Amino acid sequence: MTDTTTGTAATAPAGRRERKKAATRRALAEAALRLFLERGYEQVGIREIADAADVSTTTLFKHFPVKEALVFDEDADQEARLLAAVRERPQGQSIPAALREHALRYRVASVEDDAGFTAFIELVDNTPALQDYAQRMWLRHEAALAGAIAEESGLPADDPACAALAHFALEAPRAARSSQDPRQSVTRAFDLLEKGWGAAVSGG
Fold first, then answer.
1. 155: nearest Cα among 164, 168, 79
2. What predicted TM-score, i.e. pTM, was given to this entire model?
């Protein structure tokens, strides 16, 4: 379709559709998390979540194929940002340094700024279904990150050093949650990863 007044393609309707889809997805995720925190994951049904967001259960499943996914609605965005940190890092910046910046920006800062994060973590930790889903999610992220590291480093896809860096880069922020100074803990962990990675890629 072309706008006859400007001669350019009319993209506004598509833009509105995407914004509406994003708003529906966000409303569902927010309603689900609120209900889960109030009453517990197992005590809340799919229909209740759909009703709370004022949509049908069919619409809910178009956005979230399984109930657990409602709690991790930013899964795809998180992975995309993680891979971009490696692939789009400034020239001359090491991969561990890029991943350290990503961790401090998206994982440590979000915890510091979000008063409800502790409740979210407790919900996941106390719900076996969510723990299992979270583990599978992180394994996917870990595999994707290891692949990106290998590509950027010119190393084989199955290089164990790439898998190790991916694993510990994801684990460091989680391990730092209980620290009195998570930012310092993450920084120190990545300093160690930087040294180990340098030795691995140099063959030393």
1. 164
2. 0.82
